Amino acid sequence: MHKLYTSPASPFSAKVRLAALYAGIELEKHIVVTSDEPAELLAANPLGKIPTLVTPEGKAVFDSRVITQYLNRISGNKLFPRNAEKRLDAEKFESLADGLADALVAHVYERIKRPEEIVHQPILDWHWRKAERALDLLNETAPRIGAKIHTGHIAIASTLGYLNLRFGNGWERGRPKLKRWFKRFAELHPELAAQLPKAA
């Protein structure tokens, strides 16, 4: 069985959990705290980052985008369209969602990992501007959602789940289409919505 080093709150880990579930690939989940630098995680990934996947043969696979490509291959293309143009769109949406998640995680770390007196507001503002631009673009361009989805849908939903967890739902104001999109995702794929980021 595939082993996944993961965290309940991580948007990148959530993306991999959702992708594996959608593709029908069973995972043995190992919840880790990366700041503890657990030996088993470092043995698989010297960067100590999550998600890290270990194949049944013992081969480590990271980061999340490499993992989704790997899961797509072993599932017979269940996570990306076969059509080249549609696949590129899916990959672009995954990249956009991951970039949004990067900005959100960096914002959270700046806020909670530093003593309040040395939190750098311009850095927080810079990350938030990136997040707002990405959200505005997704409000206008998020891929149509139905029973059949791809990794782009999964990445967007995972990042919006993280956004709700860490920042609440204020992002919905002025973005009615993206709000409806996220609600529709949960309605059509409740088993995936149950795997969205949660507090550790």
TrEMBL record:
It comes from Pseudochrobactrum asaccharolyticum. The keyword Disulfide bond does not apply. One of its GO terms (cellular component) is cytoplasm. The keyword Nucleus does not apply. This is Glutathione S-transferase. Keywords: Transferase. Gene3D superfamilies: 1.20.1050.10, Glutaredoxin. GO terms for molecular function: transferase activity. It comes from the Bacteria. Pfam families: GST_N_3 (PF13417). Residues 1-79 form the GST N-terminal domain. InterPro entries: Glutathione-S-Trfase_C_sf, Glutathione_S-Trfase_N, GST_Omega/HSP26, Thioredoxin-like_sf.
